[in-house]
Amino acid sequence: MSRASTPADRLEPSEPSEPAELPELPELPDPTERSPQHLGGYRALARLPHFWRLSAIAVTSKLAASMSSLSLLLLVSSASSYGTAGLAVSCSTLGQGLTAPLRGRLVDRYRVRPVLAGCLTAHLIATLAVLMTARDGSGGSNSAGSAPLICALAAAVGATAPPVAVMTRSAWHGVASGAALDTAMALDASLMGAALIVGPVLAGWLGLSVSPLLPYAVITVLTVASVALVMASAGTLAPPPTGTAAANRARIWSSSPLRRLLIADGLFVMAVTAVDVVLPVYARQAHAAELTGLYLGSLAVGSVVGSFALGTFTRRLRRERGRVLPVLLLLFALGCAALAAAVRLSPTVVLLVCPVAGLVIGSLFAVLRTTGGDLAPAGQVTETMSWLSTLDMAGGAAGAAVFAQLAGAWGSREAVMCVPVIILVAAAASLRVQGRKRC
After folding, report:
1. pLDDT digits over 321-360, tens only?
2. Strand, helix or coil for residue 344
3. Which of 77, 191, 342, 394 satisfies CB 3.0 to 4.6 Å to 350 for a cystine?
4. E strand or H helix at 143
5. Is there a contact between 104 and 160 (Cβ–Cβ < 8 Å)?
6. Which of 82, 187, 97, 201 is nearest to 143 (CA)?
């Protein structure tokens, strides 16, 4: 080993007659990186305090969230038209997205238990009201008249949802650091991807095979369980309330790196939703509608595999932190460009390319959340995560609306060619986002 790389020599004092600057101390190794095996990061993460409790909270909250949209669609469509059902789902998403930063702000500034108890109580009341309204209108002459009420109640369901998922991501920032935090965010993204596969399947099976009411029984149990787990460990997992003054609430959007990150996040989710919308249109136009589920499922599987793999390369991720986000976005743009080329060949080629195009989706979600937590102002981690969730919903809504119109007006092949452009704009916005510590 060379003298320059020896820690003991670096700490050797200089000559008294020649004052020198304090030598730079070597970076201490991260205890989570002791294992040379690829899965060592996950094993080390599992040894952290509260890992299993946080994992249980993440699984229950994500599964409940992934079931909610389809469950609401099946419930309302059984009592009214599919148009009303789709509008109710949109209202629920809108209510949740608009109020997410407010609920995150409440968690940051006040005691967790009262905030979660209030959200859960209001959420259960609004859910029960939706169920009763849909049941009363089922098959009756007043189903059209109850549509505005159902939509208003659906918005209330979304607006009062307990912010457990964003609290889980905030809690990871409190119990993990360095490589362990990168692995935790990758695991969180993998769990979200898996929930997006399992949740709709479970909700569809219960709602269509048994009763449209049964998925809500499962969602209620999962929601109550996740809230109870958080409240039971609020003293250790939740940060103390900050009571930040209202004048400091704009610090998130006044931070240039955070603004860039939020814009990149919204554009990224817009592109992901665009792919989800355009592929079914392409399958129908190519007379291969039976492949629609396989297209979306293979995208999700690629996303889960990619995000899980991200957690095994935390050393390289930390060394290249400033380049990870734009590089991943460029890789996503290349994957979507390959998808744009595949749609001009055959539906089978598209199916083969889908897992490749989705390979970095989960990794991007993980890096965006990790970076958001790093850049969040002190005492505003949960609110920052909530803003990311809001931009997710805004980007998803924009992607669905814009690309559904493009696919209908131009054709699916032309519409998918626009997706890489959106991703490149997101990559440009993400430049110089990373590299700063939390304020």
Report:
1. 567 889 899 999 999 999 999 999 999 999 999 999 999 8
2. coil
3. 342
4. none
5. no
6. 82
90 pLDDT more than 70: yes
Among candidate residues 210, 171, 204, the one with its CA nearest the CA of residue 293: 204
For 235-270, b/e burial (b = at least 16 CB within 10 A) is: eebbbeeeebeeeebebbeebebbebbbbbbbbbbb
pLDDT of 191 higher than 50: yes
- Give the residue among 87, 94, 60 at the shortest CA–CA distance from 72: 87
- Measured between alpha carbons, how far is residue 175 from residues 169, 172, 204, 237, 308 in Å? 10, 5, 36, 8, 20
Tokens of 200: 């709709």
Q: Are 58 and 168 in contact (CB under 8 A)?
A: yes
Q: At what angle do helices 419-430 and 256-285 cross, to 10 degrees?
A: 170
Distance CA 339, CA 271 (A): 13
**With contact defined as beta carbons under 8 Å apart, do 145 and 135 qualify?**
no
**388-426 b/e (C-beta count within 10 Å ≥ 16 → b):** bbbbbbbbbbbbbebbbebbeeeebbebbbbbbebbbbb
- 3-class DSSP assignment, residue 395: helix
pTM: 0.77
The position carrying tokens 């939020």 is: 262
